[in-house]
Amino acid sequence: MAKQQAVARDTFEKVMLPIYAPADFVPVRGKGSRVWDQQGREYVDFAGGIAVTALGHCHPALVAALHEQGEKLWHVSNVFTNEPALRLAQKLIDATFAERVFFANSGAEANEAAFKLARYYASSKISPFKSKIIAFHHAFHGRTLFTVSVGGQPKYSDGFGPKPADIVHVPFNDLDAVRAVIDDHTCAVVLEPVQGEGGVMPATQSFLQGVRELCDRHQALLVFDEVQSGMGRTGKLFTYMHYGVTPDILTTAKALGGGFPISAMLTTHEIASAMQVGTHGTTYGGNPLACAVAEAALDVINTPEVMAGIEERHGLFVETLEKINTQYNIFTQVRGMGLLLGAELSPAYHGKARDILHAAASEGLMLLNAGPDILRFAPSLVIEFADIHEGMARLEKAIAKVVGSH
Ligand SMILES: *Cc1c(COP(=O)(O)O)cnc(C)c1O
């Protein structure tokens, strides 16, 4: 390990809360889908900051928006509105089912707002006893106490004291399981159209359609968490558009600011009207700097060229992963939509995802996992084809190493 890396590792352990296990190298600079560390070593980025840097690093349109707004106005709080927030909200409305927008700073905050809105809408407009939330095993919705409680992974919610009550978890893609627990006391069904952290698992068409019908029958709101799957990630601006199933509330974050922290909750006028001045709020949410960058990101992402390019890149990723697999027989399945892809390791390699990530890093490739058995790919939506080829060559070397030492 180079000296600077050892120093960074030492410092990390001295100054940071011990909740992360970062890679040994420290990135200092990025351009497009290439990143450089303190030693000047170069990496191909298939991780995209966990589906965040959807236009790669330092995209000129985002840099320009940040500079321009940075010279104008950074922050005024929500005691005042601001021009970039109004423009961004209008563009999100024009591009989706939505009629009202709430801005926050992270995925968890957008979801927290969504769950509060669903409860508030039900209790104020329908019945004070309508508080049940139906959610799914392996779901991930963020790290606030409410969002880890709605999330379907007890390892993230246990040990923090009493949890918000009246939350029920059932298996994903199992319509009968939803049918068995939904009733007139249900205020919302919450799901990711493609489960991300839970293993890159797309919903089936019949499941989403069926859940929509059950929600309508029981006056429950359908909430789509598109924090990871939104903003072009799966090849349409939002994943619900692939299915033709429209939610009542949609949250998005990660790629929305292309690396600048911002999130949004979208909903209808009717549902939004349950809330009044003071019912919910945030200091930073919708600040001009974040909204200016997100507006630039939306302008670039929501174009036919970028959308068509995602499908082409999807094809190249899947084809190359399958080619690697014919040689090494290391995956049981390559799945996902657009540029949110998962490669599930075959049983002989279960638990090895992190080993492959480490091997990839030493070959100059940044990669993600989704649990111990799945490699996850969430690159820039405009990654150069040459970068895909180079990254895949490095991945193959990493896999050869792990297979060889197995
Ligand atoms: C990342 C993620 C979140 C949490 O977002 P943060 O910005 O980390 O709070 C919520 N839901 C999904 C589906 C995510 O992928």
From TrEMBL:
Binding site for pyridoxal 5'-phosphate: 107-108, 140, 225-228, 283
Modified residues annotated as N6-(pyridoxal phosphate)lysine in this record: 254
Pathway(s) of this molecule: Amino-acid biosynthesis; L-lysine biosynthesis via DAP pathway; LL-2,6-diaminopimelate from (S)-tetrahydrodipicolinate (succinylase route): step 2/3; Amino-acid biosynthesis; L-arginine biosynthesis; N(2)-acetyl-L-ornithine from L-glutamate: step 4/4
Cofactor(s) listed: pyridoxal 5'-phosphate
Catalytic activity line of the entry: N-succinyl-(2S,6S)-2,6-diaminopimelate + 2-oxoglutarate = (S)-2-succinylamino-6-oxoheptanedioate + L-glutamate; N(2)-acetyl-L-ornithine + 2-oxoglutarate = N-acetyl-L-glutamate 5-semialdehyde + L-glutamate
Pfam families given in the database record: Aminotran_3
Similarity field: Belongs to the class-III pyridoxal-phosphate-dependent aminotransferase family. ArgD subfamily.
Summary of the function given for this chain in its UniProt record: Involved in both the arginine and lysine biosynthetic pathways.
Name this protein carries in UniProt: Acetylornithine/succinyldiaminopimelate aminotransferase
Native species: Hafnia alvei FB1
